[in-house]
Amino acid sequence: MAKSDARPDKYSHMLDDETLPIIIPSVITPFPSPKVMDLPMFKGEHKESLYWGTYRPQAYFGVRTRDPHPLVAGLMWLVAREGKPVMRHFCEDKDGLTSFGWKEHNGIDYGQQILVETDLRLETSFVKSKVGNLGYGGDWSVRIKVENKAWDDKEKRGVNLFFYIADESGNGLKFGFKDSSTLVYGSHADVGNWQLHLKSETPDLKIHHCGFKTANSVNLSDLVQKNLAESKSGELSDTAEGNSNVYVFQISSMTQISTVDIAFISGIGEETAKMESRTEALTGLSLTTSLEKKHEEFDEKFRECFSLSEEVDSKILNVGKAAIGNMLGGIGYFYGQSKVHYLLPTHPVLHYWPAELYTAVPCRTKLPWGFLGDEGFHQMLIWRWDFRITLDIVGHWLDLMNELGWIPREQVLGAEALSKIKHDHVQYPNVANPPTLLLVLCDLVGGIQKNKFKTGESEEIVLFLETAFVRLEAWFQWLYTSQKGKEKGSFYWRGRDGTTDQELNPRTVASGMDDYPRASHPSDDEKHVDLRCWIYLAAHCMEFITNFLNKKETKVDYTSIAHQLSNLDDLMEMHYDYTHKTFLDFGNDTEKMRLQMVPHVGYASLFPFISKIIPPKSLILEEQLDLIFKDDVDLWSNYGLLSLAKTSSLYMKPNALHQPIPCWRGPIWMNMNYMILASLEYYSTVDGDFKDKARRIYDELRNNLISNVVKVYDQTEYIWERYDQTKGTGEGEHDFTGWSSLILLIMTKDYPRL
What we know:
The protein is globular and about 80 Å long. The relative contact order is 0.09. The strands form eight sheets. Strands 1, 2, 3, 4, 9, 13, 14 and 15 form an eight-stranded mixed sheet that branches. A hairpin with a 4-residue loop joins β24 (576-577) and β25. The protein has two domains: 55-293, Distorted Sandwich (Beta-galactosidase, Chain A, domain 5), CATH 2.70.98; 435-748, Glycosyltransferase (Alpha/alpha barrel), CATH 1.50.10. The protein is of the alpha+beta class and 754 residues long. The chain starts with 43 loop residues before the first helix and ends in a 6-residue tail after the last helix.
């Protein structure tokens, strides 16, 4: 587990005391090959085009630079609840917003979001400009439109917005110029001299400010509320701490409708006379024109990418646009160090090297950070919109690989992300995650083969794959060897807690199906059917990529492994249960208190079907189709396929007192329904005895999923984490526009293909 060479100084911060031998443990040693993100395609114009963005998914509205020590800006607002002032800043379920989310976003330079409170409706629109000789990353504008629903002739309650900008590198900022639109100005190593301006046609707008010296914006709302309380006037104090690196501006209005334009102007030289014209180009009518143009471009690209005709119901179109808009608007940039478990009792936790991560996130309210297994599902949607964003994101993930070939599955990097968790977030270097990113890379190869890309675009993808191949090989090798079971061809997910007495069935978080029932007593005798199929898919993907790149020599014989793991006789001997007529896990289970097939039928049982291992003419295929559709098994519903059959003894049973809501024990999940639909579509098109049956099931399941998600979105304006197995209502986190956004690809019938 350790290297013998001396530890370089740059790693000294990872170990807490110098009594440890001067070695770098492999678990915190970067993979020894050129970084994928060092490719020329990620430099120059591409890198600058992504420098500014809405990369703070945790904030209701926030922008930042893709920089370890960034400039950040954001919005807060004040509401009254139960007679007390409450500040909105970071997305929280407890805030109880009627709805919020990006209605449109293009992932690069435009987004439009609507946030609805009981007494307020806010619309935030963001657009970037790179016209003229500007600073690095260009200029940007934010339009904030507020409808004060509490305003009437009798009680004219005002609106209080708080817009802020911070330099997290610590540079001090200066308060703006008197009798001008300038709020604050400063200087930054990348963007040069900059100014922040405010323009508004709203009458009687009041503006107050306060400057703070603080490392980040995590506790900024507390600082603002403290200042408001101390001023006793309900207004910021118009003061600033010495060398303040954060300025907050209170924007107050007593009108029913207020509109405020904020403009960030970069690369300012000595010719300040042009500031007024540059400000006008970013605000007012110019901004209106720019936003209208971006809206039209979004609509046009949406039609091009997803081929939903204008004749489609407008409610379906709204869901589709919200799916891609929220997915792109939820992309974040993070920088920090993961904590990693280590074997030495004196140093059980080590720090990974400082790293950056550009990634989509599952959910802005609850999970605003990166998840390795989720990211492949995210990119199945994103690459169809902008393949370069996908390559950038996948490249960042691959660069997190250590020299063992392991990538930490959950990345909570930086103060904002860490503020969301209440416990130490430690990653275990034996714990895997589904290798979904490989499916995306195969999709890109398939796109090249089907001429979906221009010549130059195809060349970029090929160069990416050539550079990343050594890391993909290492990742597969680590996955294949580290997750092996006792028996040849068997695999089991690591990370289950065999010592806990707090859970009815120890969770298998690594699989992505956290509380899906496995063997009640975790051990190395376990065999997990879904993991075997995931590793088969990984081997098949690596075989596909290897052949495409015409690699003559590889570290692993992917064809041989894929052939072995797709052997149906071997799979049935290991996982098939003749009583249930399906595939099951194997392990020590309380049902009979011995090693046995684990008698819980659900998503895991369908993985041989999902991975297309079953031959089209096999009677086993018919059994899998019956498992999906027959009522007596109870996976089928009018809203989608259930995660666990109603006949299971753990169906909808809470797993623990601290886990009172069953998640993968009945409720409907979009990512698994999407993968099942992909296989149904496949088996309905290949020559076989059950193609008509597969087509009937496919059509009905697809229609059920679309109609239910659209209905629930129309009622709630949210896409949900999961859907109720008996009523179809949304459950869990919202807006959950991670893998639930796959509903858009279900609408367009776009599935991962090999």
